[in-house]
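Hello again, I could really use a second opinion on something today. I've been staring at a protein lately and its backbone has me curious. Can you walk me through what the tokens say about the fold? Take your time with it, there's no hurry, and the full record follows here:
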Amino acid sequence: MTDIALGLGRLGRALRNQGVGVTLRDELDAADALCLVGLADREEVGRTLRIALKIPRFDLATFERLLGLFWSDEAGVPPAAPLRPRQAPAAPRGPALHWDPDARRMGVAHAAPGPGDRPGWSREALLRRRPFAEEWSPRDLVAMERLLARLARRLATRRGRRLVPTRGRGRADIRSSYRRALRTSGELLSLARRAREVREPRVAFLLDTSGSMDAHTRFLLSFTLALRRAAPSAEVFVFNTELVHLTPWLAAGKVQLSLDRLAAAVPDWSGGTRIGECLAAFADEHFRRSPDGKTVVVVLSDGLDRGDPALLAQSVRRIRRRARKLIWLNPLAGDARYEPSAAGMRAALPFVDHLGSAHDLRSLEKALAHLVA
């Protein structure tokens, strides 16, 4: 039995060196199959191994040649033939496909690293970990804005559980298909289909544009602008000493143009902040229009407030009563040593469903899970 296992191991290795896709599981199946046949019959052994090892038809010549080298006719005892030097495996016969969640279509998968390969430098991976507060070159800014736009599309194109009629791909709807066939005298010319509905998020963003948030404003505003383009129902507000409804001002185009317009039009841009008063204005003037409790409110602020902490706590409590969820993203929370010790942050924290960070792209991706949950 030891000789049989040795012969199978050598045969399997030789086949793999020649580009034949034989796995260890196939070799184990072949060993079990050989226990059921006569090892003295060369033809029977060959047929058994060909079936158990799942040899394709176009590799039969290679299999027959290697079988003669690694399997003798004497009672099925493998010869002591030396192993050939290892050759590079044959190239795959076709590109592997995978599902691209961003493009929502099938695409060509990246090849897996071969033996001895090491992970290389990835510019996208570095951008995902790079803090917003650092200095950015114009090229990196453009690349980051593209990543933020891709993240916003993921949020805006999430699918629900309910099946709705669709004109594209989806599950066949037999009942609707037969009903449609009544229009063509019972001829079933096409199938009606249903797919999971695309749920447009109902989100209200409140972005702090005070001086302490200046290093993060561009990136957070870029994310909210991209989300606004992908989900027109999303609302965007900015605040410092006053609350400004930003949604009517937003126009498609470059982020820098929007920043220039907003900096000139929004009062006290990059100045002080009164979070409590601004959130109270949001609850009184704007959020009263959404009494159904389906809107997720996201506050992007460091919580450094010059106003009354009691007013801030009262405003946050009123918003939480009407919102489906209240999420507070604080760029300072990206530091492992951070503690919500500021008076404004301590006042708001009891009414916040989730306190997260917003200091880089990875932190925004983590917050995305709480937005769609």
